Every structure is written in C-alpha cells, then in structure tokens.
Amino acid sequence: MIRALYFCMEEQWAELGRRYDITPAQQHILFLLSTNQNVLTPTEIGELGCWHNSTVTRLLKPLKERGLIRIGIDKEKPRFKKVEITPEGSVLLKQLVGAVKDIENFPCDTSCLSKEEIVNFLAYAQKILDVNIGEPFKQKVINGRIGLGERTEEALDYQI
C-alpha cells in the first residue's frame, strides 16, 4: 500500500517535472537545498532524500550542467564537497512552488479524508520514521522551510 501511495504522489511530481524539464528527484534536491540554508553535502542530500551516494552523484550532474546548483570544496574540510542552489535554481524552484499552488489535490487527492484523518495519518508516519530513521531526520523534515534566494555564511564559505 505504501508503494502504491508513493506512485500516486510521484505521478503528480512527474507531470510537473515534464512541464519544467526536471525529474521529481531533481525537484526534491532543489527543495532540500532550499530548506537547509541552500547548502548541503552530497552525503546530507543522500540522507535526507533517502538515496545512495551514487544516486546523488548521478542526480547532481544534470542540475550542475543546467546551472541550477554549484558544487564546491569545503574550505574547512577540503575532502568534502558542498552543493549550493544557484539563483537560477531558486528561480526554477519558485516556479515549481507556484505551479503546485495552482494544481488542485497536489500531490494526490485526499478529499476522501477528514482533517483529523490527515493529521492522524501524518502522526502515524512520524512515529514510523522515528523508529526506522530516527529523530534527527524527522526534525529536519518537519522543521524544513523553503528559503528561496537566501544566502548564508555557510553558503559562501567554500570554493567553486
């Protein structure tokens, strides 16, 4: 059932992606960067996106080629890379967010559920995530807020 629910939601993201020439996973990376001060390591992207490191590498390449992200070296830890959303990436993400607002029942039709049922569903999902992935992951997801176009000191503290 969870897999079927995921594919119901994924189809809406895929349709949106076709309109903007970006995959659902790439949309997710832009969203993750935006909700984390616009900078993450590839490992952090993998953890938050639930992807293997090789998958993250494959997903980042076309985003970099399109100028939607930059990948640089952390000045304090030269062995580590940092990924930053670019102004162009922020513009695209704003367009995606705007388009989502105009789509009824995005990412899937929940009109068959009451507000209480939706709240309960999310509470159950959070409990399952607590047990299987842990509190830090849950808190990053719950506390994430889109910060379009905001640059932090951390974002500027690496070499391109």
Can you give me a brief rundown of this structure?
This protein has eight helices and four strands; from the N terminus they run ααβααββααααβ.
How would the blueprint of this fold be written?
Elements: H1 2-20, H2 24-34, E1 39-40, H3 42-49, H4 53-65, E2 69-74, E3 81-85, H5 87-101, H6 115-132, H7 135-143, H8 153-156, E4 158-159
Explain this structure.
With 160 residues, this protein is an alpha+beta fold. Helices cover 61% and strands 9% of the residues. The chain has 8 helices and 4 strands, in the order ααβααββααααβ. It has a 4-stranded antiparallel sheet with strand order 1-3-2-4. A hairpin with a 6-residue loop joins strand 2 (69-74) and strand 3. Helix 3 crosses helix 4 (53-65). The protein is globular. The protein starts with a helix and ends with a strand. The model is unreliable at 151-160 (pLDDT under 50).
Approximately how much beta-strand content do the residues carry?
5-15%
Order of helices and strands: HHEHHEEHHHHE
Strand arrangement, largest sheet?
A: 1-3-2-4
**Helix/strand/pairing category:** alpha+beta
User: Mean pLDDT, as a whole number?
Assistant: 83
Helix content: 55-70%
Globally, the shape reads globular
Kindly list the characteristics that best describe this protein.
globular; about 10% strand; about 160 residues; 4 strands; alpha+beta; 4-stranded antiparallel β-sheet; disordered C terminus
